[in-house]
Amino acid sequence: MSEPADTFCSVAAPLAVSEDSRHTPDELASVLTDLAGLAGLAGQDASALRAYATSLEAGADAGASAPVDDTARKASVTRIERECGTDVGDLLPTDPEGDAGADGGS
Fold this sequence. Notes:
Blueprint: H1 8-12, H2 25-41, H3 47-62, H4 70-84
Helix pairs in contact: 2-3, 3-4
């Protein structure tokens, strides 16, 4: 017997506000990339999911000051909430990398 295939909504489930999950930019980008792949396999437009994932990855590489693609972020929120009926909030990283040194080391 094989494991059931991941669905768009099962992959998106950990992003739900009700799950109180914490995601670094890289972790969130990975989930969004997986969602884009599943959407693409279903013949659906996955460009906003990919664009937002790419901006998160670029921001993680450039540091916390790098802006994310806000248009793609909002489109991704709308897509996930509409397709899955899941509240994902602002869909921003909740555990940014490098937070431990944010106090300036005093």
